[in-house]
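dude i think i finally got it to work??
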Amino acid sequence: MRLESFGRTELGGGQENQDALCVRSELGLFAIADGIGGRPGGREASGMALEALAAELGALDEARRAEKPALLAALRSVNATVVQAGVSDTTLAGLGTTLSAVVSGGKKLALLHVGDSAIYRLGGAGLEKLTREHTLALELVTQNRLSEEQAQRHPLRHHLARYIGATGPYEPDLDEVELAPGEWLLLVTDGLHKSIAEAELERLALERSAGGAKAICDGVVERALAHGARDNLTLLVVGRPGSPR
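look at this
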């Protein structure tokens, strides 16, 4: 499967960009990570997690890279790497990061997601969100202990229940996705989707989709920066060039 991609990460607000992105076409890996704010080592955690994931996938045969058992094992190893970094260096204790990725292997395309970034699919029908945020408030929604409306105002709405670097057990979201010619996957960190409304994201991406991954990415990121982004923001666009169905 031939995939086209383009990504950008920008400082936005703050003194340090704790986002990271990884484009390793030879491994079929396209990923973003966002170091957890308010903790030490956010920048280290995001970069380390993506490097570890690339190493894990690089050790697999291409046909296995998008298989669920292989991805789960790879993520466990990535998580252990980040946890061990916090144990080995006390200045990084408690470090963590989100991680969202598209992995191509054989004839399969897999989505891997942990944290509060997001993955969207863009096609002729518009923008479709394929992931959900793993915040403590939204975990309470899935347990029927909060309504979605209550979760939007809940004090735990920004606290992550699942992330890379967690010492307790957790389940990442793993799904297969089909991508037709002319369809694109947009991987965005929370700094971007806080800076631009979903409706505007859809409109901008559709307007620029004929120009390919770079045109979509640049158009969306420049608009988010023009809105005065107050957080680091990252967008990675991956897709299949061609005419949409």
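Residues 33 and 128 are 21 Å apart (CA to CA).
im so relieved honestly
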